Task: structure prediction
Amino acid sequence: MNCKMKKGIVSFILMMSVVFTVIPTSTLAKQGSETETGGVITRIGDLGFDLALNRLVSCEDEAVGEITIPSSVQGVPITEIGQYAFSDCRQVTHVNIPDSIKSIGPWAFSHCFELKEITIPDSVISIGFDAFYSCLALKSVKIGKNVEEIDDNAFEKCVSLTGAVTIPNSIRKIGANPFSYCSNITAINMESEKNQHYKSVDGVLFGGYYANTLISYPPAKEGSSYNIPSNIGGINRKVTVIGEDSFIGCEHLKNITIPDSVTSIERYAFYHCTGLTDLVIPDSVTSIEGYAFDCTGLTDLVIPDSVTSIGEGAFDSCSNLKNIKIGKGLQYLTDRVFHKCEKLSRVVIPEGVKRISANSFGRCTGLKSISIPDSVTVINKWAFGDCVNLSDIYYGGTEGQWNVIKIEDENHLLPSYDVDALANAKIHFKASAPSIPAVPTMVSIDEPSLPQAKYGEGYNIQFQMQDGSAPEKVEFTSITPAGLTVNEDGTVTGIPRVVGTYPALPIECTDSAGNTVLKEFDLKVMPQEVHVEVNDSAAAEYDGTAHALPLMCVEEPYVELSALYGVNKTTTPTDAGIYYAQVFSTNPAYRVLQDKAYYLTIEKSKVKITHSPQTYTYNGQSHAYEYTAEGNYEPVVKYKEYSDSDNLTSPGQDSGYTETPPTEKGKYRVWISASDKNHKIYDGSGKSPWYVFGVLEITD
Result:
């Protein structure tokens, strides 16, 4: 898009005198704005309309400031904002929606990074999926009182939305969590208790005809534990489903209690719940859908026998999962179901499972032994990809039965590993896996991992024997984490100095009778959390070189900070524009807490044009308008027949301009504009700040 716009407030008001530009649909560049009728696009300034569909279909990417959508164009009412219409309009701050609009399409305002507030009028009935996806600066949303449908993830990643949001009583259908990844929302409330389809209980949204699905848990809701209610009041109001995306991104939750009324956990329900450490799946649950859990804090899990189906990748990347019991209700282990569960060392697959699918245990690099029942008939490729430490397979059948299993090739993952995990492991026929040794009773500790430590902060833990007494001796038998000391009284104290995870840290405890117990613990040393001070009020001006925000760490001024800018996450932005800045520390010992959005603004470079009205004598040849531009800059020069009604504020709304210098006698309006997105021109006349207009006349 090459529309050049004044930075500031820009309003488009439909008037009878406006000249319209009609553009074939095939020339429209914005994704998703092709019309269903194969018709034409009617333009008003930066907005494009398909009048055959009563639809606004596009807005120029370079639009700036406030946009007003007309309620009608050429007498045709505008009732829809089409899919992708404002997508990637990253400098638009406000959009005024008229009360003629009835629907807002999918992705309509996605990636409008500067959009600060939106009022959805009472005329709107439906809001499409991801309609406001990643509107990072959006702080306020008012949903009209007649909205009946909000589709999947409509406000996903609107990270500046803060506090409680209210859904009108008119609502009849809500898709998957409309506020997924809205990290500052504390409650999702219904306008009233009268709606029979949806209900809010303590700020958590439930829905369905009997409100039996947990739809959305607000990520900033206070507390680290949550007990899902089994019934939200009334007959037939049992909570039976944990909905798609319902807890997605709730990183602060540590404990969730699922009631025995729940039968289904839908896809992505607990995705990116990285703090979740305590979860029990009740034996009422029959299905767990794809990618339901991406919980790096989980260490132990029991899948009850009641579960008969598990979706693809259900426990993918649960990287600290050490112990898992798989229920007997399954016939298939789906693709990637335990992919990258790197801490799993022993797995028992229950009798009845027929297929181990592709990547089921891919990249389980800690897996040492697995028990496979004789019911298995197919092991797909990559099922044990990159399981480089798999040494023992305990197979329930005979060697003859094993040989007829369809085992696909490539049960390793990376070309650099010339390893076929199944072929290289020792197979024990007609055997079951040895029992996993119990934790020695002499040592009492709450978790299989030591309490997390934090870089630069004091650490103090106490080991105790089963009877509560302190051990006579405690020692790390391999390495001692930097900064920590083992003391004679059974304590480990100090100030950690290296960030990272110490896996399987062997610790030996000896009691007063000389009995020694060796146990492996994981210790994670977390980075110190710091805040950043940024001065993003001043804008740089385009000069062809890279620009960056001035960054300073509040707590530790000497800590070096950097930032990734814009959607391309570059460290060296050069072009004019507004770039969202993701600030980070170059020292892994520190983690930046970015509690607000910061932006780097690179203004367009100003180029002054010096010119004056010009008169030429007709000679049959063309006459180009003469001017002088600073820095030898070459702008775009256009001509049209002169009229007193020419638009000198938004000349792009006028038709008839051409870049061909005139030949015939007459008076011509000359419009000089920037030829690229990094410059803006002016002549100091004050008629229009960033356009230059001249007059050329050819006489007898």
The mean pLDDT is 84.
